[in-house]
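Subject: sequence -> structure tokens, single chain

Hey, anyone have a minute? Need the predicted structure for the following. Not urgent.
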Amino acid sequence: MPQSEEEWKQTLTPEQYAILREKGTEAPFTGEYVHEKADGTYACAACGNPLFDSTAKFDSGTGWPSFDQALPGAVETHHDNSHGMVRTEITCARCGSHLGHIFEDGPTKTGKRYCINSVCLDLEEK
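Reply:
Had a minute. Here:
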């Protein structure tokens, strides 16, 4: 059963709530996982849904953790015209929480750059 917004406020930190539930963005180069190199699986900090394998992570130089692909079925995309920009938002397929955005400028063979807020992720190391 989905949580109410009041329940999310009780289980997430204020920063997590602002980003995951209110579509905020953390400041670049401030997140815990920007330079993380450990092997493992990155999961949604709100619900634990596995989202990205560490092998898909790369340093984009943007200040946010970046991945060139998500785990199958892990995320959903949505058209986002906020802040005067045309972007594609990424949300968790399980709980609907905001994770970040996907761009078509990645340097790997997928051509994708999933730009994700660190606060939205939990790394489960291998």
